[in-house]
From TrEMBL:
The lineage of its organism: Bacteria, Bacillati, Bacillota, Bacilli, Bacillales. Residues 7-74 form the HTH gntR-type domain. Transmembrane segments: none annotated. SMART domains: FCD (SM00895), HTH_GNTR (SM00345). CDD domains: WHTH_GntR. This is GntR family transcriptional regulator. It comes from Alkalicoccobacillus plakortidis. InterPro entries: GntR_C, TF_FadR/GntR_C, Tscrpt_reg_HTH_GntR, WH-like_DNA-bd_sf, WH_DNA-bd_sf. It holds the Pfam family FCD. Keywords: DNA-binding, Transcription, Transcription regulation.
Length: 222
């Protein structure tokens, strides 16, 4: 965890913990304490307590009186709800991108894909996870829907935890990469129907992974 930050201590602690939960550095079911987090991040316990309350509101942390605070287990119903909402929004975005795409964004996305290929080859799943998110934000940026992408990212943490688990287990990396290539190709060709079709297939991969991941990591799931 990085001790440098801007903004209030509460926001810093909240975002740091949220990122750690999303990336699975803090694993589902893990116990965390206000005292230890305050010491690690070099802040007082007040912003930590406030961050814990916000994380509990986000259903990422379970605070049990007399027992402590625990990272919530992955809830597949919440994952599916997030996937459904994300699909509706991202299909709209990718269709719009087909008519607003620019050469500058194309170059950025091609660079992103090149880096994805390198990270996949080197099995650096944490970097691949970041590049995956950046790829989708570039699509949104190309059609002026970056705020929508930020909204998706905020509500997507339960979906993202399962996706990170999938990446770290080496499931579907080639399929993810191939979908990204096909999405970019469809956008360049201004083929909105093909872009929509591939985006739906892309976001359905996590549903395919669920059974295998639950068998492999049963203690992580609700």
């Amino acid at each position: 965890m990085n001790s440098t930050f801007t903004g209030s201590s509460r926001v810093y602690v909240y975002q740091t913990l949220r990122d750690s939960i999303t990336s699975l550095n803090l694993k589902p079911g893990a116990a965390i304490s206000e005292k230890e987090i305050a010491a690690e991040l070099n802040v007082s316990r007040t912003p930590v307590r406030e961050a814990f309350l916000q994380l509990a509101h986000d259903q990422l942390l379970e605070v049990l009186p007399q027992r402590g605070s625990f990272v919530t287990l992955i809830d597949l119903e919440q994952v599916e709800d997030a996937r459904f909402i994300r699909e509706q929004l991202e299909v709209g975005i990718v269709r719009l991108a087909c008519s607003t795409f620019t050469e500058a964004v194309r170059q950025d996305m091609e660079t992103n894909l090149m880096l994805q290929g390198q990270m996949m080859k080197n099995q650096k799943y944490d970097e691949l996870f970041k590049l995956d998110g950046a790829f989708h934000r570039l699509i949104a940026s190309s059609c002026g829907k970056l705020k929508v992408a930020e909204m998706i990212q905020h509500m997507n943490v339960h979906f993202d935890r399962l996706r990170m688990l999938s990446l770290s287990s080496n499931l579907n990396w080639p399929a993810i990469y191939k979908h990204h290539q096909e999405i970019l190709s469809a956008i360049i060709d201004q083929d909105a129907n093909r872009a929509e079709k591939v985006m739906k297939e892309h976001l359905s991969l996590i549903t395919v992974d669920q059974v295998a991941l639950k068998e492999q990591f049963p203690i992580y799931f609700k």
